[in-house]
Design brief:
alpha/beta; two-stranded antiparallel sheet; S-adenosyl-L-methionine; 7-stranded mixed beta sheet; 26% strand; Rossmann fold; 7 helices; EC 2.1.1.77; methyltransferase; cytoplasm
Length: 275
């Protein structure tokens, strides 16, 4: 299901308004200066403010979001994120649209935040790191991406700038609906929201250039590996013992799958079924 136009509504500018993914991000720039697009050109909600965007404006962040977002991206660059495509995409998506009103002042800090139903929105640095890992080293664009765990929809919005098609699966009905509300005003025609068991992946959209998971289990589900295209990349947390998790990267080749164990991370547990 996609966040597409509603018949009979007037046409509005689609997100992003302007975006040059090849333009370098300069970490030393002062707040509010161009980072691939004008500081005021990030996505704005169209129509009634029926989600946290309107509430966040009332909370006082309106008018400062551009400089806060650019500062966040500058910190990501300074802390080791090198892929300009990822930096530019994160410079475009207002994270404060995807957090609760009471937490909106923390939206651009490098911290995870609760989004309800025991789930969280990941730290910007973790989002950027995982996105950087799935991006083709050749500089080519991603075609189809599968996201496991839509949450509030923030990462799906960022992925919409990095891939031709994004399929995002959420097992919790409440979060699936919340993501739909959050994303609908952004008019992301290439984001498809699916309410289903994420452990099964989404075979209808396979094969995928990349699969990215926001929940960690004991191991990687076989369905994810099978739905990954040859030459594709999967990034997900898995249990590493003693209640800990590690980020893993899996690349599929003609000969099989190659797994790399990376740094320690902490994600919500991967569960089966829907609720």
């Amino acid at each position: 299901m996609s966040a597409a136009d509603t018949p009979g509504t007037p046409k509005k500018k689609r997100f992003p308004v302007t975006l040059d993914l090849q333009a370098p991000v300069q970490p030393a720039r002062p707040p509010g200066v161009k980072v691939g697009a004008k500081a005021g050109s990030a996505v704005r909600p169209s129509g009634p403010a029926g989600n946290v965007a309107g509430a966040s404006a009332r909370a006082g962040i309106a008018g400062n979001e551009d400089s806060l977002r650019i500062r966040m991206v500058q910190r990501l660059s300074q802390n080791g994120i090198r892929d300009e495509r990822v930096l530019q995409a994160m410079a475009q998506v207002p994270r404060h649209y995807f957090v609760d009103t009471a937490l909106v002042s923390q939206a651009y800090e490098d911290t995870s935040l609760p989004i309800g139903l025991g789930q969280t929105i990941s730290k910007p640095s973790v989002v950027a790191r995982m996105l950087e890992l799935i991006m083709p080293k050749t500089g080519a664009s991603l075609q189809r991406v599968l996201e496991i765990g839509t949450g509030g929809g923030y990462q799906a919005a960022v992925l919409s700038l990095l891939a031709k098609e994004v399929y995002s699966v959420e097992r919790l009905k409440g979060l699936h609906e919340r993501a739909r509300v959050n994303l609908r005003p952004l008019r992301l025609g290439n984001v498809h929201l699916i309410y289903a068991d994420g452990m099964l992946g989404f075979a209808s959209g396979a094969p995928y250039d990349a699969i990215i998971a926001a929940a960690g289990g004991e191991d990687l589900p076989a369905s994810w590996l099978e739905q990954l295209a040859v030459g594709g990349c999967l990034v997900a947390p898995i249990a590493s013992g003693a209640g800990m998790q590690a980020l893993v990267k899996v690349e599929r080749t003609e000969q099989g799958w190659q797994k790399y164990v990376l740094e320690a991370v902490q994600f919500v547990p991967l569960k089966s079924g829907t609720s």
